[in-house]
Amino acid sequence: MNYFDVDNYMRKLRESLGMNKLHAHMFRHSLATLWLRSGADIVSVMEVMGHKNMETTQRYQHTEKRHIKNMYEKYELD
């Protein structure tokens, strides 16, 4: 199975579900985002994803309020 097979499958799935914004790249995006949220270092993610510069990889770092709150609580000074 290659990218085009997955893309073709996603196109058929998108059409059958009536969803316009469902595509194979979403898997790649989700994987990078989950790795970064789980604590993977950005340089390793950058290498695995095949990015040539850090700015591209940083697009996958989504700052969410709950993550900020968790970090604040984890490192709160007494």
TrEMBL record:
The keyword DNA-binding is assigned to this record: yes
SUPFAM superfamilies reported for this sequence: DNA breaking-rejoining enzymes
Entry keywords, A to Z: DNA recombination, DNA-binding
Family: Belongs to the 'phage' integrase family.
Listed InterPro entries: DNA_brk_join_enz, Integrase-like_cat_sf, Integrase_catalytic, Tyrosine_recombinase_XerCD
The protein, known as: Uncharacterized protein
Pfam families xref list: Phage_integrase
GO biological process per UniProt: DNA integration; DNA recombination
Gene Ontology MF terms in the entry: DNA binding
Superkingdom of the source species: Bacteria
